[in-house]
Amino acid sequence: QITLKESGPTLMKPTQTLTLTCTFSGFSLSISGVGVGWIRQPPGKALEWLALIHWDDDKRYSPSLKSRLTITKDASKNQVVLTVTNVDPVDTATYFCAHYTPFFDRGGYYRGPNAFDVWGQGTMVTVSS
Amino acid sequence: QSALTQPASVSGSPGQSITLSCSGTSSDIGSYNRVSWYQHHPGKAPKLMIHEGNKRPSGVSNRFSGSKSGNTASLTISGLQAEDEADYYCCSYAGSNTFVFGTGTKVTVL
Predict the structure, then answer these.
(1) Is residue B74 a contact partner of residue B4, using CB atoms and an 8 Å limit?
(2) B50 Cβ neighbours under 8 A, 6+ residues apart
(3) What is the pLDDT of residues A15-57, one digit of tens each?
(4) Which of A23, A76, B18, B78 is the most exposed place for a label (fewest CB within 10 A)?
């Protein structure tokens, strides 16, 4: 059974750096085709994809936030960490991490991530002075 | 990379069928067969309902079905039930291992 749980500070001040940790179980980030993504949801607003990291340490970011995001993994600890620099009140949101399923083409070749099949419960972060 | 466009709200009576749309571009929905749909009850973890446009994960009711035409994906909920009342988000692969979510649709069961 795959589970994920997010942890981090609940309150941040503008300009600080936010560090969120996703601790997971039920899968290994050392296995080919496996990965974890981060998604956030500001209060009353839509989900927004932020970043993902693959088993081979390939990292991808939302173009609009790329300059402020860093995603890393520690496969031995079953953790993925997301940092967001220079936070602003608009970064107030519930942050989710999620496991993604791999996509295979008709020939059976792996072609990247497919969908986020298991999510954590999320952690709410408020940015306020 | 702009958010996919979804209607803000859709409603239906119990037993009815409703269809949620998700409009994208030729750079996301139109280019890849990797549209997924998520059901989200506020305060809970989002749940994957459809992936690869029309595939249901194990355990998801067959009342949920997905389709795609051009740059638009759709989610149909048949035999609407009270428990289906939630927010629904589409998501598409957008190339280079990136994703884009939709603006979300609130489904109300009358």
Answers:
(1) no
(2) B35, B36, B37, B56, B60, B64, B65, B66, B75
(3) 999 999 999 999 999 888 899 999 999 999 999 999 999 999 9
(4) A76
Q: Which residues of B touch A96 (CB under 8 A)?
A: 45-46
Asked if B88 and B18 touch (Cβ cutoff 8 Å), the reply is no
Instruction: Express each pLDDT in B40-90 by its tens digit.
Output: 999 999 999 999 999 999 999 999 999 999 999 999 999 999 999 999 999
Q: Chain B partners of A103 at a C-beta cutoff of 8 Å?
A: 34, 52, 93
- Using a CB–CB cutoff of 8 Å, tell me whether B63 touches chain A: no
Distance CA A60, CA B7 (A): 28
Look at strands A123-127 and A11-12 and give their pairing.
parallel
> How far, in Å, are A65, A115, B92, B110 from residue B19 at the CA level?
32, 21, 18, 15
* A73-107 residues labelled b (16+ CB within 10 A) or e (exposed): beeeebbbbbebeebeeebbbbbbbbbbbbbeeee
CA distances from B108 to A123, B9, B11 (A): 26, 8, 5
Q: Give the pLDDT band (50/70/90) at residue B93.
A: very high
